[in-house]
Amino acid sequence: MAPWIIIVILGACAIAYALIMPRKDKAQESSHQLVQEMESTLEHYMTEIEQDNDALIQRVAELKGEAAATDQRMMSQLQELQQRLDQLEREKARMPESDQSPAMIVNARQTAEGLQAQGLMDSVKAEANQQATATSDLQVEQKSQELRRESIKDRYTELFRLHDEGKSMDAIAKQTGIQLGEVQLILQLAEREES
User: Fold this and answer.
1) Over the Cα atoms of the chain, what is R_g?
2) What keywords are assigned to this protein (predicted)?
3) How far is CA 67 from CA 62, 96, 142, in A?
4) Is 161 within a domain?
5) Helix, strand, coil: what percent of the chain each, to 5?
6) Taking Cα atoms as reference points, which of 164, 168, 165, 166 lies closest to residue 183?
7) What digits encode the pLDDT tens for the residues 66-123?
8) For the stretch 86-105, what's the b/e string if a residue is b when 16 or more beta carbons lie within 10 angstroms of its beta carbon?
9) Assigned domain for 66 exists
10) Do the beta carbons of residue 179 and residue 37 sit within 8 Å?
11) Domain hosting residue 158, numbered range
12) What is the pLDDT of residues 182-195, one digit of tens each?
């Protein structure tokens, strides 16, 4: 074979390789860009979820603080009533039977019974407050979970409407102005939330 033929063949191979090489780079760049877009969208979504969780945790802490203050107030009232009752019983025990008129005995019994009833009412109120606080905490948590479940569909209603109509991801991306990778990520996140 002549040397010029070898040179021509090598030149043709170099040109073919040069034409193929940029296509691989473009494909790699587009897939790398898609991954970056998905990561960016996922980071944004996770940041929003963290902010929502922080707000929820703060609200639950406030509710617990309020409940603890209410419980403390009720306990102090209950202790005060118990001290009064103890004081009345001591006074009654100190009085000789002859000094205790029937009216005083009835009055002391009524006072003691009233204090016991008041203490019982206070303890019932404290238990009711604790149950209300627990119920309130549960409701806050359920509401938070509902917000997390509905948040992605609420944020992208147009996207999900088009998806439900059977539009392709490219068509959805063009109509909503959202990048194709982000559309894919949003749909994947919605599928995970539903499962």
Assistant:
1) 38
2) Coiled coil
3) 9, 45, 19
4) yes
5) 90, 0, 10
6) 168
7) 988 888 888 888 888 888 888 888 887 887 655 555 555 556 566 656 666 666 677 7
8) eebeeeeeeeeeeeeeeeee
9) yes
10) yes
11) 146-194
12) 888 888 888 877 76
